[in-house]
Please model this.
Amino acid sequence: MWQQNIIQLSAMGRGFHLITNQVIQQCPQIHNLDVGLLHLFLQHTSASITVNENADPTVRHDLEQHFNRFVPEDAPYYQHDYEGSDDMPAHIKSTTIGCELTLPIRDGQLALGTWQGIYLCEHRNHGGGRRLIATLQGQ
Model:
């Protein structure tokens, strides 16, 4: 069985946001699978997705602080700054973290670890809504 959904996410502020519940809600077919895979592809170049800690919000805060220092705004060597000082750093962060995930499905649920959740990493100050292509494969 193959199915594909488009997951539309509302605009979020800059930072690392848990979206696990939104993904599950917009892909109810997950519950019909005993075994399978969910592939998520983010159709944007200034945001990213990853899996990390889902319980303590200070992890999300610390990740945002780290990436802001690791990839600063207004570096003098950036040439691509047409959309503002957060534009090129957002592309670098997206490339570093990535735009896709493949997650296992087991017994009708995402087989994430106890403390794992799916993050949308919004790297722009005003990134707007984001879109994921969710492809399900399984039985």
